[in-house]
Amino acid sequence: MEIWAHQGKISPNYPGNTLADFNQAHEIGVKGIETDVCFTAPDKNGKQRPVIHHPNKDGAPPNESLPSLDSFLELLKSLPKLSCCLELKEDNEKLVSAVVDKITEYGLEGRIYLTVCQTRVPFLQLEASAKLIFKARVQNPKIKTHIIATFPFNLPALARKYSPDIISLGWLPESKLSEWFFKTFLMKLVNLRHQIKLVQDAGTKIIGGIVNEEKDFEYFVHLNVDGIMTDNSITAMKFIETKSP
């Protein structure tokens, strides 16, 4: 089973979204990392630049300490075994165009999964709607895509509509609400394990997460997902090793 480091974290004690974090995640052998991309606020010349995980993008001045998209892509290119789910943090085509241009320039179409949401939920910082996938594919048909399923009631329909390479199940870490929603409410409505198999058989990977606790790792192992997204990569990797035949 694949382990994906949310924000590049190998442990919840790490800050995440830094080039050092991404390097450490690569060193411990995760399949991939997740990070965000958005524009800075306009500079004095009115220009914006894509950066990795700008903490205060609304009205904030450009912060030179943040990794630029270029510096991140240069690092990723130097780590050929590492993949990335790159989540768009703005719901606009201008950002899609800028990011796809850069992915293409660096020749990383095979390892970066442009990430959007099934349905925007801004208060959960899920900003980019799934329709942006179509814009990205027009620009570069080779681009890989990943959808966060905010309401995973019909995964096969979601897969048919957008044909993503990955669907992840939108679980909030350390959330009693997520635990109740998936393990109680959703279980009564749909056969999630069966839906996952149908989607996998059609060629789309399924990732569970963000999950950080062993009982939740166990839940997603039972669902036969392809991978887990976590802030706790070291613990997740040790847990998965115990489940290997």
Proportion of residues in β-strands: 15-25%
Straight-line distance between termini: 12 Å
Average pLDDT works out at: 90
The largest sheet has its strands arranged as 1-2-4-5-6-7-8-9
CATH topology: TIM Barrel
Count of DSSP-assigned helices:
9
Biggest sheet record: 8 strands, parallel, barrel
Structural class, please?
alpha/beta
Taking Cα atoms only, what radius of gyration do you get, to the nearest Å? 17 Å
User: Helicity level, as a percent range?
Assistant: 25-40%
- The CATH architecture can be named as Alpha-Beta Barrel
CATH H-level superfamily title = Phosphatidylinositol (PI) phosphodiesterase
Ranges with pLDDT <50 over ≥5 residues? 57-64
Total domain modules: 1
Number of strands: 9
CATH class: Alpha Beta
In sequence order, what are the helices and strands, one letter per element? Answer: EHEEHEHEHEHEHHEHEH
GO molecular function: phosphoric diester hydrolase activity
GO biological process, one term: lipid metabolic process
Protein name: GP-PDE domain-containing protein
Region (Disordered): 44-64
Summarize the structure in words:
One of its GO terms (molecular function) is phosphoric diester hydrolase activity. The chain is of the alpha/beta class and 245 residues long. The chain has one domain (2-240): TIM Barrel (Alpha-Beta Barrel), CATH 3.20.20. 38% of the residues lie in helices and 20% in strands. The chain contains nine helices and nine strands. Strand 5, helix 4 and strand 6 form a beta-alpha-beta unit. Helix 3 (93-105) packs parallel to helix 4 (132-139).
